[in-house]
């Protein structure tokens, strides 16, 4: 639902709707969902994507261990600035857990439901790139799909920052038989699914087809950054407010056209143009209702400017 402060038209001479961008423009402001294969690190995958596109900058969302496969979103060039918007995405995995001894499966399901679904305390593994101190994480679900001897096929949905290998290990300890993870595949990160994922070979081939004059394959792979932030609350602004925002000025209520309901003070939100372009991301200094009612004060403090300066340099 939206709170509308006024009706405003957008000037077609300035800016461009995301779906109308050229391939060159998309390469500057897009996200690619890579289907990571087993072996390389997530960092190496990002570097290969950088090499394919001759990009200045790349950044991946949600690191996968070398042995883990699946959904790895990679931000290209200017889109790297939006990384903070994706830090808390829920993850979903399928994997194989191997029990070290025979164990009653119904009892294992009961242990998992009682001890390992909901809020849990995890200590990151020794190889993790974070401090090894207890952290609370939420396991949304952990379902056993198939059993083949001591191999257990499972599917789990977890909060960002949950270590599945450690989760499997802890389940084995609690059951008293020991367990380790044999295989793991991420099938979803937030709204990004494996159905949207492309292998590095597909990505490279699509790029080469574009170089030869056929762009339809690359258009399927490059997702405009605006189409990836459905989970982020938004404020739409007047054309006349955009250039000041691009120069770092805060967003004042007078520049707002409509506000998504449910924004809370201190939340990281997206500032959008009336052509659905991502202008900047910022910290809400008012909640939705206050933004709607206010006549003065700062509505949003700018955190990162995404749009290039001069895009809406409107002169009267």
Write the layout of secondary structure elements.
Elements: E1 2-4, H1 23-28, E2 30-36, H2 42-53, E3 58-60, E4 69-76, E5 91-99, H3 105-115, E6 118-122, E7 135-148, E8 151-158, H4 164-175, E9 179-189, E10 192-193, H5 200-211, H6 216-221, E11 223-224, E12 234-237, H7 239-246, E13 256-260, E14 268-272, E15 278-284, H8 288-293, E16 300-305
Helix pairs in contact: 2-5
Can you give keywords for this protein?
Archaeosine Trna-guanine Transglycosylase, Chain: A, domain 4, alpha+beta, 16 strands, 316 residues, six-stranded mixed beta sheet, 31% strand, globular, Alpha-Beta Plaits
Can you describe what's shown?
This protein is of the alpha+beta class and 316 residues long. The protein has eight helices and 16 strands. Among the domains are: 2-14 and 227-305, Roll (Archaeosine Trna-guanine Transglycosylase, Chain: A, domain 4); 91-189, Alpha-Beta Plaits. The chain is 23% helix and 31% strand. Strands 2, 3, 4, 5, 6, 7, 8, 9, 10 and 11 form a ten-stranded mixed β-sheet that branches. A six-stranded mixed β-sheet has the order 1-13-12-14-15-16. Helix 2 (42-53) runs parallel beside helix 5. The protein is globular. The model has no long low-confidence stretch (mean pLDDT 95).
Report the count of strand segments.
16
Low-confidence stretches: none
Give the ordered list of helices and strands: EHEHEEEHEEEHEEHHEEHEEEHE
Shape: globular
Instruction: Classify the fold: give the CATH topology of the domain at 91-189.
Output: Alpha-Beta Plaits
Q: What is the radius of gyration computed over CA atoms, rounded to a whole number of angstroms?
A: 23 Å
Instruction: Please identify the top-level CATH class of the domain at 91-189.
Output: Alpha Beta
Q: What is the architecture of the domain at 91-189 at the second tier of CATH?
A: 2-Layer Sandwich
Oligomer classification: single chain
Mean pLDDT: 95
Structural class: alpha+beta
